[in-house]
Amino acid sequence: MSRLMIFLISSICIAAFAGQGLHCAVSAAASLPQPVRVEAGAISGIPTTDAAVTSFKGIPYAAPPVGELRWKPPLAPAKWQGVLHADRFAASCMQNIAEERKPWTYEFMAHGETSEDCLFLNVWTPAKSPNERLPVLVWLHGGGYTEGSASVPAYDGENLARKGIVVVTINYRLGFFGYLAYPELSRESPYGASGNYGLLDQIAALQWVAKNIAAFGGDPTRVTVAGQSAGAGSVHFVTISPLAKGLFQRAIAESGSAAWKSPEVARSPMAMKKLADAEQDGVRFAEERGAHSLKELRAMTWKQLNILNPQRMVPVQDGWVLPQGFAETFAAGKQNDVPFLTGCNADEGGAEPHPTITLEQFRKQAHDRFAGLADDLLGLYPAATDAQAAEAQNAAARDYERASMYFWAQDRQKTSRSKTFTYYWDHPLPGPDKERYGAFHTSEVPYVFDSLKMSDRPWGADDRAIANRMTSYWANFAANGDPNGKGLHPWPAFNADRAITMELGDRPGPIPVAEKPELDFLRKHFGR
């Protein structure tokens, strides 16, 4: 584009804006040429507040999973004519929309329309040319496999993209739309499987990225799959799914890595059901709604199905998407072996800034959870008053979370050739509830995306510095499989002989997983 043309277009925009007849932004050679062409057709995006980054919102990556396609693996989207204007988010997948559920305020929640027709993704790219081959980060949202969306404000990809990576956020089917197993569904499948439609959506999105992301300036051979909470669990599941082989080259799991043989796994984002158990849950689900066949289930509207479902919906070890569990897959060396970055937060997993547990409750919890080792735990975390019990509860819970992650990494490294990086996040979000909730579950996400602008919290210079540091770590990892880089505190890779993790927050640097007596106790508990 010539300088004269840039001047003329800019003048038109300024004049039109003054007359309130047109809103436009010109970034000349600083933005990706449009329209962008993907397999299904041409797409146009819009500049973000930083004109050097272009966003494309509401791109279909699969056909609408409705009617006869409800509870079936996703199919390719239909081709379209003309140019698809990808200028706004599409509907989120079916769920109950809640405006706020503290500590998760507006910026952490899904908003707007929901629909079964929800298999869309969004792209933020800083590329000026489709030939740049920038690293790519594909984000899988959290929400317990029942809530969440690619359009959650905290996942705004603009500032992370400014670090030189293409950011993709995706919707995937949730709740019983995403994880219902049912005998008839298994019988109609050529693989004898059912129940993992949400995971299949995620894999379809990764396949879309492999085929199309180069058009946005991305490198399909440098894809990081990343997520938090249920999104982190999903990252773990695609790591052991043969269907995802070769679709990503790094992985990030935020608040979602637990030792495989820990009893906590059943309550974690890494939980899964056996197919037979999931099918029986599916039969109960259908009968509670008066349906006695798959045909009847597919004929029901979503209102008749009632999305308020008390059953826990999680991925299924179905013999196809997930042929084996974590321990078996890694023991056989069949995992998708890629560099892995994972961590946990200070105020999750049973810890909180001001726990209300009493001394009696703390002692009972110790005996319920640790059985014959309860006295050992009470000796290591002593308490004689309610106040001391609260402090002991927090110390024990935080040691437990870090140790579980450490033992997970130990087991992973036995058959993995790629590096692991672990972290412990302890920076509380500012605001009136800072002292109450601290570094709660999900609180690191606005810093990972540097999406601080998406909420009205009283951010300070320290928050902006932390966000800059976090995006740099994540962008470096997406680019190189290693978070380290110039100007950053060194982050050591996991070493089974050194029980340390990286503290991220106000004081970045390596810290012990736990003190030696406490870690030795946890080794006994985990059967190490």
Task: Write the topology of this structure.
Layout: H1 3-18, E1 36-38, E2 41-44, E3 46-47, E4 54-60, E5 83-85, E6 120-125, E7 134-140, H2 158-161, E8 166-170, H3 175-179, H4 183-188, H5 197-212, E9 218-228, H6 230-239, E10 250-254, E11 273-274, H7 275-288, H8 294-299, H9 302-305, E12 316-317, H10 326-331, E13 340-345, H11 359-370, H12 374-380, H13 386-413, E14 420-425, H14 434-437, H15 445-449, H16 461-480, E15 500-504, E16 509-512, H17 516-525
Parallel strand pairs: 2-5, 7-8, 7-9, 9-10, 10-13, 11-12, 13-14, 14-15
Antiparallel strand pairs: 1-2, 3-4, 4-6, 6-8, 15-16
Helix pairs in contact: 11-12, 11-13, 13-17
Detailed description of the structure:
By secondary structure, the protein is α/β, with parallel strands linked by helices. Helices cover 33% and strands 15% of the residues. The chain has helices at residues 3-18, 158-161, 175-179, 183-188, 197-212, 230-239, 275-288, 294-299, 302-305, 326-331, 359-370, 374-380, 386-413, 434-437, 445-449, 461-480, 516-525; strands spanning 36-38, 41-44, 46-47, 54-60, 83-85, 120-125, 134-140, 166-170, 218-228, 250-254, 273-274, 316-317, 340-345, 420-425, 500-504, 509-512. The chain has an 11-stranded mixed β-sheet, sandwiched between helices. Helix 11 packs across helix 12 (374-380), helix 11 (359-370) packs parallel to helix 13 (386-413) and helix 13 (386-413) crosses helix 17 (516-525). The model is unreliable at 1-29 (pLDDT under 50).
